[in-house]
Specification:
Radius of gyration: 17 Å
CATH class: Alpha Beta
Number of strands: 8
Strand order of the largest sheet: 1-2-3-4-5-6-7-8
Strand content: 5-15%
Structural class: alpha/beta
Largest sheet: 8 strands, parallel, barrel
CATH architecture: Alpha-Beta Barrel
Order of helices and strands: EHHEHEHEHHEHHHEHHEHEH
Number of domains: 1
Bound molecules: phosphoenolpyruvate
CATH superfamily: Aldolase class I
CATH topology: TIM Barrel
Length: 258
């Protein structure tokens, strides 16, 4: 069986200016130790305005936390006011880029074909996409959750070689669980993450389906992360609210100690 190192990622959304972000990362790194990093990978995804400051803190103090972005534009450059390209992120030593978050899909109308173009742009610049998929409560109640996720994966991964797919991260995030406190049960989260892995098997084959890391996201907290992380097909967590404060984020990373 392929060993998959867990990845705990903090998506700060539109929180923390660069002063607050520096303080947060310094405090987080003070609370984590080498054992924590050998057990699991950690990434922080601050707003664009914080990236340069956080890059400097991480690199000057050799902190083994990966720098992540929350979004990118799919084009290299051009007249796209307000957007940031993957080439610009690469220059900041960004390693992971979240793509297709439900907030981007719902509020900013991002489509699966844009998501697909962004994934290609992220790989072109040597970074790793964290592709978010997930269903609404209506889709779940109608029994359509599995189909929705399969379609998001098929369209999002179109034309991406199987070697690249195997290096990706998929975040299964039921939309009804994001920011609501209504975490999926570990059994439900496992069932859907196993479904994601099965879809990858069908789309890209056995090897990528075994190596791809699948995160669960949706109201993950220090009190519920350990049970989620015990599930066979859950290889990490994408966390919003509980990753904003250093103490809470450190407890998430140290879930094995609970
Ligand atoms: C998220 O933003 O992807 C998320 C899962 O948020 P929260 O942990 O706050 O539900």
């Amino acid at each position: 069986m392929t060993e998959r190192k867990p990845l705990i990622s903090g998506n700060w959304k539109m929180h923390h200016n660069h002063f607050q972000a520096i303080q947060m990362v310094q405090s987080l790194s003070y609370q984590l130790n080498n054992d924590d990093y050998s057990y699991c990978d950690v990434s922080v995804h601050p707003p664009f305005t914080d990236l340069r400051s956080i890059q400097t803190v991480l690199e000057s103090d050799n902190i083994p936390i990966s720098l992540g972005a929350q979004h990118c534009h799919e084009q290299e450059k051009g007249a796209f006011t307000g957007e940031v390209s993957t080439g610009m992120l690469e220059k900041l030593n960004v390693k992971l880029v979240i793509v297709g978050h439900s907030e981007r899909r719902e509020i900013f109308n991002e489509t699966d074909s844009q998501v697909n173009a962004k994934i290609k742009a992220i790989f072109k610049h040597g970074m790793t996409p964290i592709l978010c998929v997930g269903e609404t409560i209506d889709e779940r109640d109608a029994g359509d959750a599995e189909t929705k996720i399969k379609n998001q994966l098929i369209e999002g991964l179109q034309g991406i070689g199987k070697d690249r797919v195997g290096k990706m991260v998929i975040a299964y995030e039921p939309i009804w669980a994001i920011g609501t406190g209504a975490t999926a049960t570990p059994a439900d989260a496992q069932e859907m993450c196993a479904h994601v892995r099965n879809c990858i098997l069908e789309i890209s084959g056995k090897s990528p389906s075994e190596s791809i890391r699948i995160q669960y996201g949706g109201s993950v907290k220090p009190v519920n992360i350990a049970d989620l992380m015990m599930q066979n097909d859950i290889d990490g967590a994408l966390v919003g609210g509980a990753a904003l404060e250093a103490e809470s984020f450190a407890r998430l990373v140290q879930y094995r100690l609970q």
